[in-house]
Structure formats: structure tokens, C-alpha cells
Design goal:
The protein is an alpha/beta fold and 333 residues long. The protein has two domains: 130 residues, NAD(P)-binding Rossmann-like Domain (Rossmann fold); 191 residues, NAD(P)-binding Rossmann-like Domain (Rossmann fold), CATH 3.40.50.720. It has twelve helices and twelve strands. The two termini are 19 Å apart. It binds 1,4-dihydronicotinamide adenine dinucleotide (NAI). The site of 1,4-dihydronicotinamide adenine dinucleotide (NAI) has 29 residues, from helix 4 and helix 6.
Length: 333
């Protein structure tokens, strides 16, 4: 298949080229994001390969169909950036990577929890300046604390297992409870109770119309005073302005983010020479108890290897056996 790969970084090229050695698809690597302005660059391709901040709205899907594209291969698990209804109407096949390394994201989540709690990001800077004072670095034992996990799919279950291992009491909310989580000792409760009782709340549900701003001002007000909120799911699961107010009032005592509502204009690029135009993001970076990473939770060798392998396998299956042969979990439409 002729495939135009959008939002290519050097590591994408390396891992996709390696996975493609035997499959022999004709890959064209492009650096720009897929948007209405760049969609026509895919002219002559059978497929496009897209990442989390590529725009696959109805207009873009329409443009892609116009230039001959019939397959969209997402190299991500989330597909909130795809207008699935439009894709279906246009007869496009959209495939994704349902699971590549839930451990990568879960371990990064726990990394944020540990770093925020023990202020490792601040300690690192202090020690570099030969400031060995401990004042301001006080943490708390995770052992015995309550962790609330919103969404116990592949990633949420891994987080639950790790936190059970730390000796935490783990609560969860999910419309489809997991037997694995329950067997690990996780207790399912309604979201409102989870928020009231948890010292740490971590989000692992997909972004949909129902979960957009799941954590808003009203829900923040229900949380324990000084709660630690972690979001490695998708930015818009939380209402950023409400979170900023929660940080200012002290209701939120710690915030760890790997995703941000408006990240598509920020993340994955070096913007250190430019003026930051996003005032909400700028405000978030002023809080000492906020730790943000730029959507890197998936970014392990194992994760990238599996993403590339599944993406290439998805393309080969569609080409040789048709969309019906793609595993159900990988077929978006
Ligand atoms: P999954 O599909 O295995 O699990 C999602 C779970 O959320 C399911 O059990 C589902 O029932 C549950 N859920 C749906 N609506 C809910 C609600 N309103 N409240 C509570 N639970 C709800 O997905 P997986 O693989 O665990 O990934 C979760 C999310 O993590 C993805 O949708 C994606 O947005 C994000 N992600 C972030 C990455 C990063 O690098 N930061 C990398 C990979 C995924």
C-alpha cells in the first residue's frame, strides 16, 4: 500500500521502517500535522498514518477521500480525533492500535504520582544549586492512602495493580468493571464516592462526548481537600480553567498532567524560542505543585515497537484480507 505518514518524528521513521521491512508498504514520511491545510499532501496514497494530534474531522476525511485515500491507520489507541460517523459515511476504513503497552502509560502515571508527592522535580533543581535544605519537600506515605482510578481498561488495571502493590486502598469507577481489577482487590464505587474518598484521583477513561470535562468545578469541589489529580488520558477529560481555580483555592494539592486540552498547538515540538500564547498553560506552569509532561506516557521502546508492528499489520490485513479481517478491537470503522 502507498501510505503517507503525517506528524513524523525521527523515532516514528525508525520504528515504522523497521516494522515495514517484510511487509513492503511504500511509506512517505511527512513532518506536518494532518489538517485541512495539509490533507492534500496525501494525494496518490491508499492510506494515511496519523497520530494523536492529527485532525481527522469530517472536512479532512472528505479531502482525503477526494485524493484517493481509503484507509486511515492511527498509530494510537485513542481515536477521539476522528469523526467516526463521517468516516463511516465516506466508506473509509479506520484502524488503530488498541493495545501497545498499557504498562508504559501506567508506569508514567505512577512516575508522576511519585515525583509530585516527593517533589523530585524540585529536589533535582535544588541539589544542582547545592541547596540541600528539605523544607518544602515534605511528602506522604502512599502506603495506606486511597487511590481512585477512573476507567479500569488496559491502562487503568495496570495502574491499579501497581498501586495495590504500594499498599494503597484502590477504588475505581467504570461502567464495565474489570474482573482482573476486582481480583487485585479494587473496589468499584460510584464516581462521586471515589472523588470524596480518594487522596489521589487518576483518569484512564477515553475522551468521548460523555467524558468531556468529566472533572469540572462541581466535581473538584467534591474532592478531598489537597487531592492529587493525575491525567494521562486525554486533556479535555478535565476542565482546565476549573482545575486552575482548584489549584488556587488549594482544593487540588497536586496536579500531574501528560495531556492538555489544547495540546495540539503545543506538544511534540520545541517551542523554547517562541512566546507562549496559551495563557492557561502558562498559568499552570507557575504552580509549584504542578508537574506536566508533553504526552510522553506512551514513549518507551516497547511502546513504539508495538505501535509500529500493529500499524503495519493493520495495513497489511486491510490490503490482503479486507477490513473485515482486522481484529475487532483495532477496527474503528
Ligand atoms: P481501554 O479502552 O482499555 O479502557 C478504557 C476504560 O474506560 C474502559 O474500561 C471503559 O469502560 C472505561 N470508561 C468509559 N467511559 C467511562 C466513564 N465515563 N467513567 C469511567 N470509566 C469509563 O483504554 P486504555 O488502553 O486503558 O486507554 C485509556 C485512555 O488512555 C485512552 O482512551 C487514551 O485516551 C489514553 N492514552 C494515553 C496515552 C498517553 O501517552 N498519555 C497513551 C495511550 C492511551
Amino acid at each position: 500500500m502507498r501510505v503517507t505518514v503525517f506528524s513524523t518524528k525521527p523515532y516514528d521513521r525508525t520504528f515504522l521502517a523497521e516494522a515495514n521491512e517484510k511487509a513492503g508498504h511504500e511509506l512517505t514520511f511527512l513532518e506536518p500535522r494532518l489538517t485541512a491545510q495539509t490533507a492534500r499532501l496525501a494525494e496518490g496514497s491508499d492510506a494515511v498514518c496519523a497520530f494523536v494530534n492529527d485532525d481527522l474531522c469530517a472536512v479532512v476525511l472528505d479531502q482525503l477521500t477526494d485524493v484517493g485515500v481509503r484507509v486511515v491507520a492511527l498509530r494510537s489507541a485513542g481515536f477521539n480525533n476522528v469523526d467516526v460517523v463521517a468516516g463511516r459515511e465516506l466508506g473509509l476504513t479506520v484502524v488503530r492500535v488498541p493495545e501497545y503497552s498499557p504498562h508504559a502509560v501506567a508506569e508514567h502515571t505512577v512516575g508522576l504520582i511519585l515525583a509530585l508527592n516527593r517533589k523530585i522535580h524540585r529536589a533535582y533543581n535544588r541539589v544542582r544549586e547545592h541547596n540541600f535544605a528539605l523544607t518544602g519537600l515534605l511528602g506522604f506515605d502512599l502506603h495506606g492512602r486511597t487511590v481512585g482510578i477512573v476507567g479500569t481498561g488496559r491502562i487503568g488495571v495496570c495502574v491499579a495493580q501497581i498501586m495495590v502493590g504500594f499498599g494503597c486502598r484502590v477504588l475505581a469507577s467504570d461502567p464495565c468493571p474489570s474482573d482482573t481489577a476486582a481480583a487485585a482487590g479494587v473496589q468499584y464505587v460510584p464516581l462521586e464516592r471515589l472523588l470524596t474518598e480518594s487522596h489521589i484521583v487518576t483518569l484512564h477513561c477515553p475522551l468521548t462526548a460523555d467524558t468531556r470535562h468529566l472533572i469540572d468545578a462541581e466535581r473538584i469541589a467534591r474532592c478531598r481537600a489537597g487531592v492529587m489529580l493525575i491525567n494521562t488520558g486525554r486533556g479535555a477529560l478535565v476542565d482546565t480553567r476549573a482545575v486552575i481555580d482548584g489549584l488556587k483555592s488549594g482544593r487540588i494539592g497536586y496536579l500531574g498532567l501528560d495531556v492538555y486540552e489544547e495540546e495540539s498547538d503545543l506538544f511534540f515540538e520545541d517551542r523554547s524560542e517562541r512566546v507562549l500564547g496559551d495563557d492557561d498553560f502558562a498559568r499552570l506552569t507557575t504552580f509549584p505543585n504542578v508537574l506536566i509532561t508533553g504526552h510522553q506516557a506512551f514513549f518507551t521502546e516497547d511502546g513504539l515497537h508495538n505501535i509500529a508492528e500493529t500499524t503495519i499489520a493493520n495495513l497489511s490485513t486491510v490490503e490482503h484480507d479486507g477490513p473485515g479481517a482486522v481484529p475487532t478491537a483495532a477496527l474503528v470503522c
